[in-house]
Here is the input.
Amino acid sequence: MPFAQIYMVVGRTPEQKKAVIEKVSQALVEATGAPIANVRVWIHEMPKENWGIAGVSAKDLGR
Here is the structure.
């Protein structure tokens, strides 16, 4: 069973997350030949202050 974990900073809309799930699922089906019913996608949303970029939090960078 293909299982993808996606880490993103909070702030995406439900529609954007739905699109991510659909597109990642389809990519896994195409790449592995697994049935779509066996594909799992887990989105981890991280607070901006918990995500660091070049030693600075995404919140402090205004991202």
User: Anything to note?
Assistant: The helical segments are 14-32, 58-61.
